[in-house]
Design a protein that fits this description.
Layout (H helix, E strand, L loop, with lengths): L3 E8 L8 E6 L10 E8 L2 E6 L1 E3 L12 E3 L1
Parallel strand pairs: 1-6, 2-6
Antiparallel strand pairs: 1-5, 2-3, 3-4
Amino acid sequence: GIWPLKGNKFCEILEPTTARVVAKYRDRKKFYSGKPVITKNSWGKGTVYYVGTSLTPESMVSPVSYTHLTL
């Protein structure tokens, strides 16, 4: 399901090549709506999450729940 997250300060638009998109922007008023904002990639024996915005404190939850980001 969709877990609404909130970001502020900046909105980096990601262009993943090997990473899986975990969350996308979804504010229809913004030109970057639908673009990736959180990605997940394997690195060595671990996993790396890249977050392209500054999440608000209430949005800091397990990245497994990420699907869409409302900005």
